[in-house]
Amino acid sequence: MRRVKCHTCAKVVREELEWISDNPFYTKRFAFHVGKQCRNTTIKEVAKEHNLHWHTVKELEKQYMHKQLEVRGVPTPRAIGIDEISIRKGHTYRIVVSDLERKIPIWFGGQDRSQDSMDEFSAFLGAESSKKIELAVMDMWQAFRNSTLQNAPQAAILFDKFHVLQHLGVALDKVRTSEYARLSDKNKSFIKGQKYTLLSNRENLSKDGRRNLKTLLAANKRLNTAYLLKESFGQLWDYKSEVWARRFFENWKESLKWQKLKPFENFSKMIERHWSGIAEYCKPENKVSLGFVEGLNNKIRVIQRRAYGLRDEEYLRLKILTSMLPELKI
Fold it and tell me: Where does the pLDDT of residue 205 fall: very low under 50, low under 70, confident under 90, or very high at 90 and above?
């Protein structure tokens, strides 16, 4: 490539060619080929295949991912999903916001999971686009709720089903541990080592797992009651009317009486405090796929394992934001 002197600033600059990548030793076509390979394998393996330096491959992949975001365009979501991820030990969090209708992550950032960090998303989106948000799905973290109410007050707030059921699973496990502590050594054998058998969905258990579950529930009445309460609670999200959903919840609370299941009583009080964000799911316009955010979290964990030890947060941001985007055509 030719080097020319600019008559305006008197600097010597390199001639720009459309087909050359940011690294002048490689074409854009080759950079995109490397970036495409890195979607399914590690930088180290791609570097070994092409006999390139590890850092060179990473920079070529970053150029590929920047182009993917350019093709994606500026996001204007109607329904968003908000979640936090841990990027390293020591409670270091970043926030991930997804477009639930397009099923793609659209923002990664913040310094923690505070309201100020969540406000950065609204600044990124802009006031005009924030007004177009009609639904925000999140866990019951108050900072996310406060930021949404402040920056997108017209949006309905819906608490994520999977996070709610996670709290119910914690309540069931507390019952399990209390029963284990209460029973004699002879009866403890039914409970020992059965934590994940008890917390897993029945349909996900193996044949042996179902047999162990049946034995466990037959051996302990309180655990059997707690398990049935946990399984029945999932019906709440099947209702299309808030009135009927509320009636179901009242009946579920009523069934807790005289059971002496303190963790479940605390869980019901938590649901009571956050009822408005759960009842929103009854409305037809709010029936969005709630499994996408959890699926994205699993994908992020795979990315983090594959990039173990990598300290480049910008690279992690690009990997997450492009993880659900289609491949570029070379």
Answer: confident
